[in-house]
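Re: How this chain folds, sequence and tokenised backbone to follow

Filed under: protein folding, tokenised backbone structure, sequence and structure records.

Contents: The amino acid chain and a row of whole-number tokens, matched residue for residue.

Body of memo: The sequence and its backbone structure tokens, given next.
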Amino acid sequence: HYSEMLSNSISLSNAINLFQSNPRSVVIPKFSLPKNPSCSLIACDGKRIYIIGNHGVLHSISLNKGIVNNSTRFHTFQLSMIPKKERVMMGITISNSYAYISGPFMQKPYIFKLPSFEQVKEGLTITSDSRLQRKSKINPPFTSDGQFIYSLSIHKHTISVYLIQPPKIKLQRVIPIKLDDKETQNANNDNEKMPQIPKNKNIPIFTNGTVLTIVLLTKEMNGQFYYRMRHFSLIDGTHISDNVHIQKWPLFSILY
């Protein structure tokens, strides 16, 4: 198979997602985290960053370097169309210039056309070549490279790839992944046990379009948060490598 030949002939070790040693920070005016934040609460369409805040407020940040005025760079949208009882652990992702908002307590997803943020009120149907893959909505954890949505199923050990093309959301393919703890420990030559997957499956994932990274909290010690980054190929789902990331603050959601 072509994908197997490609993965065997090309090393993806240089394509993994690594953080900068001295990252820049930006203060978002009047932003506060939701009481029960999703680990998929941030997305980007290449022009703006979108972040779900508390009380159903969506914050947007312009990436235009020429815009320095806060009143022009930062905007908010009130997600009043979503019932309050459903605004728990909401996640946002983007595909093909559409924002997709969903969560475990929502009856249906909410979809908006970007950059106008006009709601798409007619329902979009999730379709695939297999009837067995049909479902009503995509739940976090999910992430995006701007074009495709990548949804992680811890239970099935799969990454589902979707593309929004109204009036349909097309399931492009399903990538099986391996979560082999022993393989990872031997590769990293450490005796530290793999962290447990949270029962609520609320774990950060992010991608650069080539590699998908799963972020697992290992421990919190002396004011430091230790994370294990597990990198998987989006060609065939093979495990590439792991690395440890340490920082002073907890990671709620990541966008690459």
